[in-house]
Amino acid sequence: MAPTMRAIDIQNGKGPASALHIVSVPKPTPKDTQALVKIKAFGLNRMDLLQREGMYPVPPQAPKTLGVEFSGTIEAEAANAESGFKVGDEVFGLAYGGAYAEYIVVSTHMLIHKPKELSWETAAGIPETWITATQAMYLVGEFGPGKSILWHAGASSVSIAGIQLSKADKASAVYVTAGSQDKIDFCKELGATEGYNYHEVDWSKKILEATDGKGIDVVIDFVGQNYFQGNLDVAARDGHIVNLGSLSGTKLPAGVDIGGFVRKRIRYEGSSLRSRDEDYQGKLRNTLVEHALPKLIDGSFKVPIEKVFPWEQIVQAHELMESNKTKGKIICTIGQ
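Given the sequence above, the corresponding structure tokens read:
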């Protein structure tokens, strides 16, 4: 095997999409529980844009190369690799970083065997989004049958997964917010009960009207500052608000009323997946395999893909994600 490989780097360490380019870097070697995977496809995520601009807290064990989800073939294993995997296996999985490359080393605890029913592109779009949705709604939000749930950024890949999981697990109602009627209609096709265009209506008032003032049991938020008050307003008694990001900012304006925390016994909790240890992520992998993978295989759960790019067009792929016009995953493929 050649000692080097191609990977996508950021000129000057951080910058706009145009700073992304392909370079030659040392090929990694698997250690301990790791496998070396030859990548066929990788998925883009919002955190990639933030990391590219130097605005994301990258975990210490992550390489500087972007990318956390991928599909490919195992080319080599370290001595303590999980026994269920071997050289030649087709897999997909989650990593702390490094997926924008021809090869990646990743813990076998975070690999999943790729079913023949899933394409390389579809498989690459599953790990980060479906595991994040699973973590947010079940482990943190304590969602269960009969509860109502609100997914902000309804047409984002995490919310697309969450809408389908919520419906399958018998949510009493699934609400979304989005920036266009087209996106709201798309979410309804996936199982959302109702959606609200945040450009046109006060979504918090509309949701309170729709729930006869009761509010929502579980709120999943990626927006932060601009939605903080609205989330407190729509949260039901004993409701859980799960914050996964702060796309609108982190500083709250004067006049925010936090009375709902005590009055409605609201729990507000932040969470991230990438900073979790290997054992925690491995348990989530197992939950995904047991709970969602069968439905992904038989087509009950969908993984909408907005567009597939050859990885040489990574600049255009990042620019498309920045446009906020997508409904589903953006995937890059690596040719032989």
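The two ends are 14 Å apart (CA to CA). Try to locate this feature in the token string yourself.
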